[in-house]
Specification:
- 66% of the residues lie in helices and 0% in strands.
- The chain is an all-alpha fold and 184 residues long.
- The protein has two domains: 71 residues, RNA polymerase sigma factor, region 2, helix turn helix motif (Rna Polymerase Sigma Factor, Chain: A); 92 residues, Winged helix-like DNA-binding domain superfamily/Winged helix DNA-binding domain (Arc Repressor Mutant, subunit A).
- 23% of the residues are buried.
Length: 184
């Protein structure tokens, strides 16, 4: 495995990690952990197979392990639902209201559904590749993708029916939520 072969996949890894975590710093940590693990376990990669899929598999496994670890530790300190803290959130000084709503909705999906949705839609991977990365059957990938799309529709509809969080939100954005396209 050449150094350059891994380097060319870093932008896609960062994009996927940011979407998974919803946090730039956590995403960078996830990419760093993935690269460290890939370098230390490079002998597990089979020459001639898809390096990108292998790197995403490593990243996915690290992310899921981290989520499970946080869930185990958070028994004493449960997370506060976003809806309960929404009144405390300060609006960013941008006009990207729809993007913010989309990001909030995306982060409300269960991690397994979010991972599948991102791999299929953002990384344009096929169901078989996503199944290999996530370690589940193709049918489970299709089911998770379907549930993720449906939940996103529900969440976006709820977001669009709430009063605008930002003063610059247009009535068109609130009245007509964007349709989610089916890519695969």
């Amino acid at each position: 495995m050449s150094h350059q072969a891994i380097v060319q996949h870093i932008p896609a890894m960062r994009r996927y990690a940011r979407s998974l975590t919803g946090d730039v710093w956590a995403a960078d940590d996830l990419v760093q952990d993935t690269l460290e693990r890939a370098c230390s376990k490079w002998r597990l990669w089979l020459a001639g197979t898809d390096l990108r899929a292998w790197l995403f598999t490593v990243m996915h496994n690290i992310f899921i392990s981290d989520v499970r670890s946080v869930q185990r530790r958070s028994g004493a300190h449960p997370a506060v639902p976003l809806e309960d803290a929404a009144h405390e959130l300060q609006a960013p000084p941008s006009t990207a209201d729809l993007q913010m709503d989309l990001q909030r909705c995306l982060l409300q999906l269960p991690p397994d559904q979010r991972a599948v949705l991102l791999l299929v839609t953002m990384e344009d991977l096929g169901y078989a590749e996503v199944a290999k990365i996530t370690g589940v059957p193709v049918g489970t990938v299709m089911s998770r993708l379907s549930r993720a799309r449906e939940r996103m529709r529900e969440l976006m509809t709820q977001q669009s029916s709430k009063p605008a969080l930002h003063a610059r939100a247009t009535t068109d954005t609130v009245a007509h939520p964007p349709a989610l396209r089916r890519l695969k």
